[in-house]
Design brief:
The structure is a single chain. The protein has 158 residues and is mainly α. 72% of the residues lie in helices and 0% in strands. It has nine helices and no strands. Helix 1 packs across helix 3 and helix 4 packs across helix 6.
Length: 158
Amino acid sequence: LYMTSKKGITVTEATRKLEHYCVYQERCHQEVIQKLKRLGMGTIAIDHIVAHLITHKFLNEERFARSFARGKFHQKKWGRNRIISELKQRNISEFNIRLALQEINPHEYLEVFDALVDKRLIEINNAPLQKRKRKLADYLIYRGWESHLVYEKVNELL
């Protein structure tokens, strides 16, 4: 497999590049394949490199999904719905999505939800009551929090 891509990169060079790409940050298969296509690699080369990355533990979809869920929950304060949706867009299997959601502590999930509600209420405290309710609900739904949690909280608070 000493073929070169349209951009003159050999399979070996592309493999090294992708190893570094995967070491820098967890990646899903889709991101790796897109990167290889941008490098001009053909289908056979892509399959060969992806297989190499999986075999040598550079690429692991379960590890990616778990890391993604943890990160988006802790850093961006996303709810389960948004995390699920984003993982589906990356073609992550239902099985790995379920494993990823186990990374979120249920108790911590509700604490983060309550903190987010408090923070948002301070930001919109000048709006009329109905508008506050709508703004709070829209904000939380957009961030992927479950509608039953959102509407329960909106009705309880305002």
